[in-house]
Design a protein that fits this description.
heteropentamer; A alpha+beta (152); B alpha+beta (362); C mainly alpha (290); D alpha/beta (176); E mainly alpha (647); B: 362 residues; alpha+beta; Cytochrome-c3 Hydrogenase, chain B; 12 helices; D: 176 residues; Rossmann fold; 7 strands; binds iron/sulfur cluster
Amino acid sequence: MGSFMLTKMSFRNLFKKPVTKMYPVEPPVYTSRSKGHVVNDIKECILCGICEKRCPTGAIVVDKPAETWTINPFACIQCMFCVRACPKSCLTMEHGYTPPSTSMYTHTDTKPELTAEEQAEKLAREKEKAERLAAAKAAKQAQAGEADNGKE
Amino acid sequence: MGKKTIIPFGPQHPVLPEPVHVDLVVEDEKVIEAIPQIGFIHRGLEKLVQKKDFMQFVAVTERICGICAFGHSMGYSETIEILMGLEIPKRAQYLRVIWHELSRIHSHLLWLGLLADGFGYENLFMQCWRLRENVLGIFEKTTGGRVIFSACNVGGVTQDIEDGDLKGIVAILDGMRSEYEELLKTFLYDSSVKNRLSGIGYLSKQDAESLCLAGPFARASGLVEDCRLDGYGGYGDLAAFEPVLSEDGDGHARCEVRAREVYQSMDIIAEMVSKIPDTPISLPVKGMPGAGTAAVHHVEQPRGESFYYAKGNGTKFLSRFRIRTPTSHNIGGMTKILQGCDLADVALNILTIDPCISCTER
Amino acid sequence: MTVLSFVIALVGFGLVAPIVGCLLAGLDRKITARLQGRVGPPILQPYYDVRKLLAKDNVSVNHFQDFYVAMSLFMAILAGVLFFAGGNFLLVVFIITLSTLFLIVAAYSSRSPFAEIGAEREIIQVMSYEPLVILMTIAYFLAVRSFDVSAVLTLSQPIIISLPLVFVAFLFVLTIKLRKSPFDLSYSHHAHQELVKGITTEMSGRTLAMVEVTHWYENVLFMSWVGLFLVWGSWIGVLVAIIVALAIYFLEILIDNNFARVKWQAMLKWSWLVTLVFCTVNIVVLMIVS
Amino acid sequence: MSSTIKSPWIIHYDASSCNGCDIEVLACLTPQYDVERFGIINTGNPKHADILLVTGSVNERNINVVQQIYEQMLEPKVVIACGICATTGGIFKECYNTLGGIDKAIPVDVYAPGCAVRPEAIIDAVVIGLGILEQKRTALEQGKLVSEKSADCVTAADKIVDGQTVRAAALKITKG
Amino acid sequence: MATIGLLVVLPLVAAAALFFIRKDSVRTPVVIGSAALIMLACVWLAIGHLTGTMEFYPLKSDIITYATLLIDVVLGIYVFVKGIKHGVPFASVLAGIQTVIVVVFELTVAHGVSIDNDIYIDSLSVMMAMIIGFVGTGICIYALGYMRVFQEQHKDQEDRRHIFFSIFFLFLSAMFALVFSNNLAWLFCAWEVTTVCSFVLIGYTRTEEAIQNSFRQIVMNMLGGLAFAIALVYLGSAGILELDKLINLGAVGLAAFPIALLAFAGLTKAAQIPFQSWLLGAMVAPTPTSALLHSSTMVKAGVFLLAKLSPAFGWNFNGMMVMLIGGLTFLICAFVAISQSNAKRVLAYSTVSNLGLICACAGVGTPEAMWAAIFLLLFHAVAKSLLFLCVGTAEHHIGSRDIEAMDNIFVRLPTIARFMALGMLCMFIAPFGMLVSKWATIVSIADTGNIVLMLILAFGSAATFMFWAKWLGKVLAVSQNSPDLEKGVYKSEWFAIGFMAFLVLFCSVAFPFISEYVVVPYLAQFEHFIFPGLLPAWQTISATLGFDNLLIMAILVLAILLTFGAFFGRSKKRLVNVYMAGVGVDPEKRSYRNSLSGVSESSQRNWYLEDWFGEKALLPMSNIIGIVVLVVGIALAFINLGGGALL
Ligand code: SF4
Ligand code: SF4
Ligand code: SF4
Ligand code: SF4
Ligand code: SF4
Ligand code: SF4
Ligand code: SF4
């Protein structure tokens, strides 16, 4: 029993600098893992829609035809399911929460228009792919043909 | 004197962190009747299993309650792991224990603060919450979140803590000890605190037993009641585990049990850190919970036993998921101790059972 | 007390007290915050609060409450003016009690369950400190041979020398009067008590602002009661009184921050016990000595 | 600048929050964040409060409570929805007993996202709320208020929404 | 002198007339007419004597002396018979003994004593006469309306209102006789008449409880009467049968024993511990009776006698006894009042408590204390009667005399509630009369340095604050609209209540002047024999209390009245609902959605702190202490102060 048992601590507090973080005068401090908002490196995104499927709150909407990736920051619960699920690892959980606002909004990333070079490269890639496919098909057919032959 | 004082206590009431409603019938300041009612936070989340697959659902369970958030995700994950026969790696088990015990420290500090506020000791409240920020800092550093941090999923944990950081956690906790000691002394021995806590809301061991109390509420009445004794997950590897008990059965005893459990948790964390093996932190989950399989599990949350039941049906959606939370056990005890107490003690009595309305109502 | 001194006190107390009271309240909040390891609000925060309250919408639960509260404010000012005009101490005591009564009635008039319980508790608080306050004035009379406040200025030594125990007992109930923990039963500035905001639950806007200002006036008055124990017929006395009053104010803040709120039973028991023992001993000794 | 924004008293109501946001609201009051720096007091009484912080979504049971608390607050008043549950219903929005965000019940002035909402976000939200509070006060003085969120409040407040201005406005308040 | 006769005879005639009047239409004008005449006579008396010094009148009328003897015998026989009839032999025994003593005394001892002055007038007795004349008759008028409702509500009871009114006026007559008699035998006769009148009035309803309580009253007061009779015998044999001579002897100490007996009689009549229970029991009577007993008659006779004897008290055993009993009663009954929820019982305990304070002041016996006692008596009379009348009317219109039932009375009975609040304010708060008088008490006690009384006063005041404040709060609680029940209140009731309210305010405002021109001159005549060395009365009071302070109080009363008149209830604020934790349903009824999803009404009951201050907790012990103090006090007076010397 006794009284004033907290007084020592109180006096210590009185003569020490307060522990208060002076936000917003001083910017907030984040750790390396701090969760804030989800950012999509849209260039890498292939609009596969896995993140949309994995998101438990339906915060992400992927519109393949329109080439957009949309997130509703007012629905995202920072669970990181999308980040972990993304096959391209193009989603990251950035520091810094979505700032409060007087109205709710969504954030949309559109796949950027490709530059001429990229266009060419893409075309080249597609062409190469088509060729590869064609080759493979041919090879398969050839194989099949062989097998048929073998059967016969 | 025909008339009685009848007060609507809650759901909005500054002393209640969560909405509860109590019809209080008071004479002078003596409570002669107290009829509680809840339901203001009921969301119906158990039914969500039909809409969220069993892997996603861990995010829902984590939000059963923002205080024992980790505990619920762990309880759920372990239930599913039992259901699917998964044995998760030891490191994941140990990490779960560490986070879970950290949660207990943060929960108890939070509760101690609220209790202090309940008896009008603002400074003490502030100091408890000031210390608690250390634990939240650990959470943010290790998982990125302060209160809800999605560190657990079925099959293990989502992120590792490097060994250096583990040492750091122990160091932070050790650093807290001396200041916590002062708080503990204030709670247990300061005359003005004792004056408010001693003797209020007494429940005998028999009462505690017949009312099926759980957690610190039960332990404060001398009941050995702690799921951690079952040694699930990493708890099985503890060298020794003795629940903190008190025989007094009053508000002060409940305060004491929780306050001392903070040390216990610190010790458990230190032990886990010293023993933690270097294994993977999760294992891939394949397949679905099988049709017709069911599992039950229980976890010792800061407030007591939380009970889980899950039933699979062969799809990615569970067909049933149920929780029974510590407060559901304890609410009978609360109504009992409210009878005949002083109005000034109503809030305290409600607080000393550390009610968790959010998880109770789900 | 002359008409002149009354007028001077009216102007002086009427204008200076709210400023001092406001600063004291601000200081209180700042120091409280620092004791808790926080930064705390600006010193002028109480002033901002009142200004804010004045700008709020003008509503009430009935047409009488704000009148009672205004009367409470008026009586608090009057008590202070009489005090500083050197008037009769007992009169001051009675009028400040009247001020409290108006506040109690204001709370009752709302018919809110929380305000009414707050009012009941306020009554208990009055009942706890009233004996001491009356005995203090009697002790004052025994020490000074007059009930007039101005009479202390004719003394050759402060009355605390003859009334040390009464002073201690007064400090005890001062905590109740200043509405500080452990005795902030009827309402406190912080929420989180079982009565929502107790007495002031139904007061809002301007009415609440008046309660705050009343509180400033009251605080200054009570602190000057502390000072009354320390002044004598010398200007040093005034200086000493101010310093000691500030120290006591700090002590009250410290107490506020180091105690759980007690229940009314304990408050009543303790304050009566302290009153009974300390005052009796002090007065008996005083009468034997003189 | 009037005193209204130097003394925002808050009331917090837990609609059907999971406690995560609640404890962050409470944490704002404690030493680490200490919003009393801005003159904020947690009054717990709608009649004294200027800002209503609601956490959690509304359900059948509490929607009336939320509305009653809101109605009992005196003008000028501001509502801040704290947390994802309060803004949209969050992960619970598909639950059978969840009606959705707070704006299903009362007009919301500021939405503060986050699960759980971070104390810093609450502070930002309050700062934005202060701007709106000040506008409403002016409107009240001119007799133009208003229990509903008026249109010009929204646009004016929107102007100070992006991070920079929020910070600037906040700095002005904390320093001034 | 003739006015005094008029004052005694007028009500007597009215009483006789009213005994035969059974019709309301005749009774009303008779009551009002006699009341008006009595008031006029009082005014006339006041004009002549209010500020004058003491005057004596040697009447030397044997007829009156024999008449008093006759009355004494008749009363004795009446009580004797009643006692037999209702099976209370103890009362009969007391009545028998008393009558025998008196008859023997009158026919033997008293015959030989020559009486110089039978009648006297001084400002105190004029003031008492004013109280009786104004307050008492006001209550009679009030009773007209009240008793009509009472009779309507108690149809089963035989209409005995003619007796009721007759006794009322008889009572007044006896009181007038009492305050002007210098001849102790006459005084005794009036004394006994008041006892029997209240006996009849308390038993008026003839219910079992009423009869039981009326007998409690008569037994306790007969004890006092017996003491009075013994004192008479004792004094008669010493050759002193005049009040003024007795008082002048008092300080010398020879008359200590008879004065102790007279003080005992006064204490029983003033319902002091351990005799408080008779006054509580008297609450079963219709409210005008209670009002009359409390404000202007009966108990006032007790304290009046003590106030008269006051100069003979001081630091002697008698003063000590009266002071201790008074102080104890003040303290304990104030506490017990906290635990009561029946409005009339609260009023009764408050009366007993206040009378205790008056007794204590009388016991202290300094000029300031006497000053305080007189003002306490005055303000108690006016404020208490106002309160009783309000409670009575309220009871008829809300159907209960429980304080809890008065919830929201502010809206349901707006005028009554406001008057009631005025009465309460006057009872316990500055700047109204009672508190100012209490102030003087504090001053006088501080002066004499009586630590026990200091403590009693300090704690008693706190208790007083509590029970009044909580009741006041209940009366002033406002809801926005409830039915107005005031329609059915009779004009006579309104008149009486309004009149009392006027008296309360008049006295509060005129306070400084009453003090300076009436009371202080009265006290000035005693300065020579109390506390030599103290300043004369007027100077002590001005030095410690100060005329200017009284003036401040009076101005404050006026200021409060004006502000209330100007602003009360004039607020322009928009009305909103009461906070109900978010689940309010109907703000008028204070209802809310309860735990069973139904609708409950919230309510608020005052605190009664039964465990701390209940009757059971406090009274048994205090009764024992009271009895011990009385026994020891009288015994000491008998043994120590040389009773033999006088003989
Ligand atoms: S999962 Fe990754 S790649 Fe697929 S749509 Fe989402 S962000 Fe794009
Ligand atoms: S973090 Fe979670 S809630 Fe947010 S978008 Fe990704 S999956 Fe959806
Ligand atoms: S399930 Fe229960 S709570 Fe729900 S409606 Fe039926 S009875 Fe009511
Ligand atoms: S708890 Fe289970 S049974 Fe109850 S509502 Fe939720 S899903 Fe349905
Ligand atoms: S008991 Fe429930 S509601 Fe309370 S903190 Fe824990 S999980 Fe949350
Ligand atoms: S016991 Fe309560 S706080 Fe803890 S996990 Fe369960 S619901 Fe959450
Ligand atoms: S937003 Fe997240 S933390 Fe907040 S109440 Fe909802 S689920 Fe809980």
